[in-house]
Write a structure and sequence with these properties.
Number of domains: 1
CATH topology: Rossmann fold
Strand content: 5-15%
Shape: globular
CATH superfamily: Glycogen Phosphorylase B
Radius of gyration: 18 Å
Number of strands: 6
CATH architecture: 3-Layer(aba) Sandwich
Largest sheet: 6 strands, parallel
CATH class: Alpha Beta
Number of helices: 8
Structural class: alpha/beta
């Protein structure tokens, strides 16, 4: 759902973030294949240049996922050491509306997966015109505009480098976001799927 930018920024501020400093976001389950601890390592490297940068890690918890709870404890242990790391979950009332607002209002979105299928959260962020730094795995690369595939990464160091670059080059980051939205519009929305179905039916009839 579309949300005014000023509303999104207000939601972000209400969760304790400083809107005058850069904000980086990862939305994913707390799963080892999403590499949340690697994201924190990359964040530490980004902080060496951008000292005020803030990291938001959003995840949904389930009672039957003991591994997720274990990873959450490790993330929270890291967050205790740094007041600029924010850990938000559905267990604290953080739901879809808040995720939407954060995706629209942050500076850079990370999806540092080590293994992934399509990775819907990447297209969600691109549709909202946010630049994305993501793992070069699974179905993630196909979601990236061709001109911005350099922001697909494989290491913590690459992730940090690309995030810092986007924070330093706001014009390029904005261009990336707009190109990402257009790529999602052309490739992954329902009208394109309907077109493909109609073309398939047409070819079948001709046979």
């Amino acid at each position: 759902m579309e949300r005014p930018e000023n509303l999104c920024r207000r939601v972000i501020a209400d969760h304790g973030l400083n809107l005058r400093q850069p904000i980086v976001l990862q939305v994913s389950r707390f799963d080892p294949w999403k590499d949340p601890l690697g994201v924190i390592q990359a964040y530490r490297l980004v902080r060496e240049k951008h000292t005020g940068v803030q990291l938001v890690m959003v995840g949904a918890m389930a009672g039957d996922d003991p591994e997720g709870w274990d990873i959450l404890e490790k993330i929270q242990a890291e967050a205790v050491k740094n007041p600029n790391i924010f850990v938000l979950t559905n267990m604290t009332g953080f739901g879809n509306m808040e995720v939407n607002a954060f995706q629209r209002g942050v500076d850079v979105v990370i999806q540092k997966s080590l293994r992934k299928g399509f990775g819907l959260v990447v297209s969600e962020a691109l549709w909202k015109e946010r630049p994305v730094v993501a793992g070069a795995v699974g179905g993630i690369p196909m979601q990236f505009p061709d001109a911005y595939r350099e922001f697909l990464v494989t290491t913590v160091e690459e992730c940090a480098e690309k995030v810092s670059f986007l924070l330093d080059h706001r014009g390029l980051a904005a261009d990336f976001g707009r190109a990402g939205r257009e790529n999602v519009r052309r490739q992954f929305l329902v009208p394109r799927l309907i077109r493909d179905e109609l073309e398939l039916i047409q070819r079948s009839i001709k046979r």
